[in-house]
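Morning - X2X inputs below, output right after.
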Amino acid sequence: MNQLSRRAFLQSFGAVSIAVAGAGGALLTPRSSFAQSAQYKLKYANNMPLSHPMNVRAKEAAAAISKESNGRIDLQIFPNSQMGSDTDMLSQVRSGAIDFLTEGGDIMSSLVPVAGINGVGFAFNDYNEVWAAMDGDLGKYIRNAISKVGLVAMDKTWDNGFRQVTSSLRPINTPADLKGLKIRVPVSPLWTALFKALGAAPTSVNFNEAYSAMQTKVVDAEENALTLIETSRFYEVQKYCSLTNHIWSGFWFLANERSWDKLPPEMQAIVAKHVNAAAMNQRADVAALDATLQTKLKSQGMVFNKPDVAPFRAVLQKAGFYQQYRKQYGDEAWSLLEKYTHPLA
Ligand code: X2X
């Protein structure tokens, strides 16, 4: 089923259709014996394939939530962009058509500019810096900004991972290798600006169309974390993987504020507890996969290289990229970022 007809199908048949329309045909939502009588039926959508740790852990959370609420809450999962593109789903969670969405700060930044700040190139050196920032004052600042647009962000950010550049044409060793490279980036002004500053030719494509953009050679490259490159089978349409770690990205677990407020406090507590616990497990899954997936991706034909990132940083500095974004995000947000990283601008 193509994307459009699948969406129309889902819209007319609702959550039940997950059993037949889910990628790979798997029945994702745990249909507990309570589900029929659930008082709170909550739709949670995401863009990741079924096998991604996000869906594995969300499924566990849904089961735990159902159990602890004695069947009063049924968290129905719509994975794999079944509800539409990233930008569509963001509109849907705002309107209340869906109750929960996990979405990247890159996509969120059209609505909440500062949510894009984790995408400043070569900011985070490692996961220690990332989680200190996102579980600390930077995350708090972003969650507060998110709360101003009618959305509630759960406390724990989910992991997408450190992003690497893949290409069907050539490995990226130096900034010169990026020159004119047609690279798919998420729909995010910051991502586009970053790759433009590095000399590439970025095109914004929503995630649900990224694979076909590569397959049809609309683009020759993309950038994502290894977990996603593997679970989304990008290795089928990309040959080289250059370990640039240029951006760390994560997912905000968002609730529509009205849907959230409809839940009594004790039900909110159950949802938050299990969703945040799932986030912590999902982080561990992604970190473990990140450490092992190179071997698997090599056996699937990918060729790896690890460039020195100093020349890439230097190009960005020279282009005034960091100064520009410092101005854009403001000194307060910027200093919260730099509190956890090295000085950037
Ligand atoms: O669209 C992507 O590449 C993704 C899923 O990694 C995000 O940044 C939201």
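Note: The chain has a mean pLDDT of 92.

O.
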